[in-house]
Automatic annotation (TrEMBL):
Pfam families found in the cross-reference section: TatA_B_E
Name of protein: Twin-arginine translocase TatA/TatE family subunit
Keywords of this entry: Membrane, Protein transport, Translocation, Transmembrane, Transmembrane helix, Transport
Main location: membrane
Region (Disordered): 31-82
Membrane-protein topology: Single-pass membrane protein
Signal peptide: none
Keyword Manganese found: no
Length: 82
């Protein structure tokens, strides 16, 4: 007679054979769920530590570097002067 472990293995193999078309979708969903759970756990951990500042990488843009065209250059460009 079969033991419990052999019966479990047979059931897993039968389920895999019958649901072979759905397995990639199920594994993708499981991966997405794991990533969401991991990011939520990280966010909850960061919320528990209010003393640490949150740093967002980027660069500081000065007033001359905003690209508005109102800089005080050498006057070699074309356009109205005022």
């Amino acid at each position: 007679m079969f033991g419990l472990s052999e019966l479990a293995i047979i059931l897993v193999v039968v389920a895999a054979v019958l649901a072979v078309k759905k397995l990639p979708e199920l594994t993708r969903s499981a991966g997405k769920s794991a990533r969401i759970l991991k990011s939520e756990a990280r966010a909850a951990r960061d919320a528990d530590e209010p003393g640490t500042p949150r740093v967002i990488p980027g660069e500081t843009v000065g007033r001359k570097d905003t690209g508005t065209g109102n800089d005080t250059g050498t006057g070699t460009g074309t356009g109205p002067r005022g």
